[in-house]
Amino acid sequence: MSGLIVRLQRRTGRVVLDTLASVGRFAGLTAEIARGTSEVRIWLPRTFAEAYNIGLGSLFIVLLISAFAGGVTALQAGYQFTGNIPIYVVGAIVTQSIVLELGPVLVGLILAGRIGARYAAELGTMRVTEQIDALESLGRSPASHLLLPKVLACILMIPVLVVFADVMALVAGWFISKQSLPITDQDFAYGARIFWQPFNAWYSLIKATAFAATIGLVSCYYGYNTQHGAAGVGRSTTGAVVSSSVLILLLDLILAKLLLVP
Amino acid sequence: MIRIRDVHKRFGAMVVLDGVTLDVQDGETLALLGPSGTGKSVLLKHIIGLIKPDAGDIDVDGLHVPTLDRDALAKLRRTIGYVFQNGALFDSDNVYENIRLGLTDPNEFGDDAFARERVSECLRLVNLPDSTLAKMPSELSGGMRKRVGIARAIAGRPKYVLYDEPTSGLDPVNSDIIDGLIRRLNDELGVTGIMVTHDVRGAFRTADRIALLTGGKVVAEGTPDEFRASQVPEVRAFLERDFDLAPLETGLLQ
Predict the structure, then answer these.
(1) Which residues of B touch A45 (CB under 8 A)?
(2) Three-class SS of residue A218?
């Protein structure tokens, strides 16, 4: 019995130490990325290239998924708010739920998979093929050459993609409402406006920016610390996607509590 | 001058370096021979600060490498070219961009005309045509990748060049070209080199001194003539190629 307790204590201790070590490495990498900002001539052109790639590359899937999300939200709102509740509420529900929640969270989760996996795999491959060592051996900083452009590209492009997603989902929500519910354009627009506050748009962008930084930093962390060849690249990629997704949901909760609930 | 004193390194339970002591004088080329898996590449990575030793000292030009801060280490690395075993080319960049990143002086790196001229010059030194410049690393053969890696390492005119298996995988003609290049860099530009290699013939042709690393220690070192005449058992075994045959002869593979 005492042996079991000792083994349990050891395992718990190891988990705690591993977690603390990971937090320390993550903080160290973040500080390293912040230090890389001094080399503007290096990271600026690479940031634009990365932003172009992830922005344009992700636009189609973001628009497609947000169109479906907007349509489904409209149908479900119509299904739930029938009877004595005025039909214009559908406009309010669609607008509020898309801008406050579905737009940023859905895009965040999609891009955690698309961009996070890409960055972790790319950096992981560079690590196991000694390309990152080669960069360091030339006296160059991996932070300014590789990591900072990726993190900044996320922070620049993901909020833009969220704006596109919000607009697309609203258009899809309005279109599907009109096709399947007894609602006029005026009703929908009235519902959308009646509960609208400018802060809602800011809230959507704040969430998008927080999710973007999470995706960029977490995927860079996993990719940069890859070990043990192809299997290690696979582990890093999975770790980056899972951790980014969980952190996005956690941040969603925290930001709602901090910014929406007085 | 590179000064290595009693360096120890282990990875988990495996002891890789067990008290390595070695000096490399300015202007000389040292060939580091040894069986596979004896830590030759690990030793090179210690010199450039990519790996920190568990114990021991590594000094380059009087700077204690393991304790250098980030900026000092980056500055030191700009004086050292490193040729990686498998090239380690940046696979998202073409050959031109790869070699250009070897221009460690920010002014030279930022000057397009100078960079183009220097990159072409380095490419010619490793016997590759200018038509290679636009190619991606994935379009190159293993030998070409290795030569581009060498071109990148020498682009910044480093004081030291560390070669990790510079001729492995190359055909005899290109091996001779690389051996000749290492010799010329040493003779004409005074570049100090450390060459990790299995190529005994190339080591004797190229190096001013040869050292044998085995069992985590340097067991012999000297000029090529001294090395050839050495009666140290490990040297005899290595020169007579008994290392690779030993497992077969003792039946370990049965």
Answers:
(1) none
(2) helix
Instruction: Give dist(CA B151, CA A129) in Å, integer.
Output: 18
Dihedral angle, C-alpha B135, B139, B142, B147, nearest 10 °: 0
Answer whether residue A215 shows pLDDT above 90: yes
- Tell me, what's the pLDDT at B142? 77
In 3-state terms chain A splits into helix, strand, coil percentages (rounded to 5) of 90, 0, 10
Q: What is the pTM of this model?
A: 0.81
Rounded to an integer, what distance in angstroms lies between the CA atom of residue A107 and that of residue A163?
10
Q: Do B77 and A137 touch (CB under 8 A)?
A: yes
Alpha-carbon gap, residue B1 to B27, rounded angstroms: 9
DSSP string, chain B: -EEEEEEEEEETTEEEEEEEEEEE-TT-EEEEE--TTSSHHHHHHHHTTSS--SEEEEEETTEEGGG--HHHHHHHHTTEEEE-TT----TTS-HHHHHHTT--SHHHHH-HHHHHHHHHHHHHHTT--GGGTT--GGGS-HHHHHHHHHHHHHHT--SEEEEESTTTT--HHHHHHHHHHHHHHHHHH--EEEEE-S-HHHHHHH-SEEEEEETTEEEEEE-HHHHHH---HHHHHHHTTHHHHHHHHTTTT-
How far is residue A10 from each of residues A2, A15, A20, B12, measured CA to CA in Å? 12, 9, 15, 19
A134 shares contact with chain B (CB less than 8 Å): yes
Which residues of chain B make contact with A223, given a CB cutoff of 8 A? none
Q: What chain A residue is nearest to B48 in terms of C-alpha separation?
A: A137
Q: Does ipTM come in above 0.90?
A: no
Q: What is the pLDDT of residues A124-179, one digit of tens each?
A: 999 999 999 999 888 888 988 899 999 999 999 999 999 999 999 999 988 988 88
Among 3.60.110.10, 3.40.50.620, 3.30.450.20, 3.40.50.300, name the CATH number for the domain at B1-70+181-187+197-249. Answer: 3.40.50.300
Parse chain B into domains and list their residue ranges: 1-70+181-187+197-249
Q: Does A129 touch chain B (CB under 8 A)?
A: yes
CA distance A173 to A185: 12
- How confident is the model at residue A29, as a pLDDT? 84
A129, A130, A139 member nearest B77 (Cβ): A139
Residue A202 to chain B, least CA–CA distance (Å):
37
Whether A46 contacts chain B with CB within 8 A: no
Minimum distance, in Å, between the CA of residue B233 and any CA atom of chain A? 35
